[in-house]
Amino acid sequence: MAGLIVVVAESLVLFLFASEGLGGLAHRTRPAAIPLVPLSSTQVVIGAVIGVGFAKRGRGINYHVLGRIAVGWITAPVAACSISFVALFIVQNVFEQKVVHLVPYSVTRDVVQALENEGIPAQPLVKLSGRKFSGSADFRQALRGQYR
């Protein structure tokens, strides 16, 4: 029975946190936003097994192993971040490789006309017409400012 509960809990959690349909429904009805995040099925199963252990009043839970698992969950992302930072520094400064390639964006009259032909309201984009943006982040920021 405990194995069935673990598998059902795992499938429900993975479905809830990976379902674009449920995330969109929660966003439209606004009770609470469900974040779409990548989850490790191993971590979900471990959490479900721990939950079953707590439901049995903590019997059968090896807290030493649980502590080691928690430390691993914390140290793995920190180590990955540190290694990636050092590798990026080496690639950019030692090998002089360009890592980020910014793509310039601009809004032209043709773009506005094509959007309006598709039935997409493009009137706020007229204010951005003729401006050049150094990358997608700058362009996205300007778009958010126009559509708010």
Question: How is the topology of this model organized?
Answer:
Elements: H1 2-18, H2 20-29, H3 41-55, H4 63-93, E1 105-106, H5 109-117, H6 123-126, E2 132-133, H7 136-146
Antiparallel strand pairs: 1-2
Helix pairs in contact: 1-3
State the main characteristics.
148 residues, flat, two-stranded antiparallel sheet, 2 strands, 3% strand, 7 helices, single chain, mainly alpha
Report on the structure:
The protein is mainly alpha-helical. 66% of the residues lie in helices and 3% in strands. The chain contains seven helices and two strands; from the N terminus they run H-H-H-H-E-H-H-E-H. A two-stranded antiparallel sheet has the order 1-2. Helix 1 packs across helix 3. It is flat.
